[in-house]
Amino acid sequence: MLPYSILKRISPKTRYLVRYKHSPEHWKWDSIRKGLLGKRKYVAVINNYGDSEETMSNLEHMGAINMRTLFNLEKGYIQEELEKNKRKEDFIPESSHYRLYDNESQSGFKVEKEYDLHFPENLNIYCYEGDSESDFDSPKRGSTGVFNYYLMDGGSTLPVLALGLKPGHKVLDMCASPGGKSLLAIQTLYPDCVVSNDVSNSRLNRIQNVFDQFLYDFDEKWLKKERVKLTNIDGRCIMEDNFDRILVDVPCTTDRHSLHENDNNIFKPSRIKERLQLPELQRELLFHALKLVKKGGVVVYSTCSLSPIQNDGVVHMALRQIWEETNIEIVIKDLTPALIQSRSVFELADKKLLKFGHLVLPCLSQNYGPTYFCKLQKIN
Ligand code: SAM
Hints:
Layout: H1 4-7, H2 12-21, H3 29-37, E1 42-46, H4 52-61, E2 65-66, H5 67-83, H6 88-91, E3 97-102, E4 107-113, E5 125-127, E6 149-153, H7 157-162, E7 170-173, H8 180-187, E8 193-197, H9 201-214, E9 228-231, E10 243-249, H10 255-260, H11 272-292, E11 293-303, H12 309-325, E12 330-334, H13 336-339, E13 358-360, E14 371-378
Parallel strand pairs: 4-12, 7-8, 7-10, 8-9, 10-11
Antiparallel strand pairs: 1-5, 1-6, 2-5, 3-4, 11-14, 12-14, 13-14
């Protein structure tokens, strides 16, 4: 870490990046920096409420690949490597449970490894191969009047996949605007009810716009529009409970966006108080979600930041608060073995550098993220 005498002479934004450069991930910094400053990549989430078959065949014709196919290919390679008994320890660790000790609270956090990332059969996400320069065209309206696909940062798909959605689930997207991840959850065609919440009224309108542009009330089809509810509450005050899955995609320093956009940048001096209070707000949102979720249910915490404080730091603070103030029992899900199947699509940070979650790192060839996500299950 650079001495504070030097740090204080540079702008908050540069200071933040310099701090990151001197963090344990710094050996990848040059590649991350090039990625962050380079052209970000998108994936196309096929809209099941539009002309999905035709859209998929057009995209395949253009050279795009279904992410499920890439995940399945990797699963096949993993199987082969296992059969040859090579790199066995990467895929089958000696134990699927371990405990992380917390010196300050004397508590221990139970961790369970997960070996499979379920890719819902109706979810189709298209991407271009690593080094491809190809881009998706803007989405177009089809015969039902809705857009044929939704473009999003590929990294944003992993927190939703990590939720492990199943048919009939009641889902809360606590900080939902503009609604990309809610839409992705809906496109699995699994949930029975999706509540998309955001504290900002103007940003709630953005979710409504997205839903109007992408959802369509079929008579016979899956999730009816009325089963998608929009609410405008501070996530920390939501009273409705009984959720099977909660996504807590918190407000954060939005690192890639902050580098490119000056308007209302979170690093500008007038927003310093807000920026410094972010981890506290993030902890409160996650703590509340862990209380709201059903017994046996799952909470996924996510950010689009590289900041260790906003990522593992917040998870650590929320877990400690749960341990100190409630009788709730939480298990941290270590998705490392499951995420091996995503290795041809995403550049993930070495798990040894993260305590609780996983981090998609930007780089020129797989220029998604940053996306941090951590899966937590309420046992009791
Ligand atoms: N999940 C969204 C998506 O994938 O499209 C992006 C969410 S964005 C990172 C964070 C959102 O949190 C913002 O829309 C912001 O208005 C909202 N927010 C900030 N504070 C909140 C709070 N206390 N409760 C609920 N939402 C909040």
